[in-house]
Amino acid sequence: MKQKRWCGMTAKTGTVLSGVFTIIATYVYLIFEQKHMRSSECTEINQRAKRVNMLISQFIMCWSWSIVLFLSYITFIISCLLLYSVYAQKHRGLVLYIIWILFYEAVNIVVQIFTNSSSSPGEVRVMRWFGLVSRISLHCFWMFFVMSYAQITYKSKSQGNIISYNARMSIGHRDFARRKSKIMSLSRHYNE
Q1: How many Å apart are CA 146 and CA 21, to the nearest integer?
Q2: pTM assigned to the model
Q3: 23-49 pLDDT, tens per residue?
Q4: Of 101, 99, 138, 132, nearest in space to 114 by CA
Q5: 162 Cα distance to chain centroid
C-alpha cells in the first residue's frame, strides 16, 4: 500500500520532524527569552496588589522564567516520548504530544501577554511576538502530520487486534469441530 504524502513527506516522517522541531524551537526559545523574563523587581509581593487579578498578573510576571523553564523541560520529555512513540508505533504518545503542545502554547501566550512590559524596546516586543506566532504556526503545520500518523497507528493496531481475534476464533472453531467428530466416533463405537 502506497503511503500518502503531504509536502513531500509521509505522516511518519512529518511526525519525527515535528518532534525534532519542538526540541530545537524550545531550546532556542529558552535562550532568547532568558534575558527578557528574568526580573529583579520581584523580590517581594507588592502590597498595593489588593485585587486577585493584580496578584495573578504579578505572580506570572515574577515567576515567568520558572514557569517557562518547567514547561520547557516537560516539553523536551514529551518530544522524546513522541519520537519513541513513532519508533514503537504507539498512538497514546502521539495523542499526549498533541494535547501537551496545545497546553504549552496556550500557557506561553499568557506568559507573553503578562511579561510584555513597556520597559523593553518596541523592537524586542515585536521580535518576541514574531517568534511566538512563528512557533505556533509551525506547530499547527506539524500537528497535521502527528494527527495523521496517530490515526494511522490507531487503525493499524485495531485491525491487528481484530485479525488476531479472528485467527484465534478460527483456530478454536477447527479444534471444536475436530473434537466433536472424535466424540461422535467414540459414541458410535460404544453404541455398537
Answers
A1: 12
A2: 0.71
A3: 999 999 988 888 777 655 665 555 555
A4: 132
A5: 27
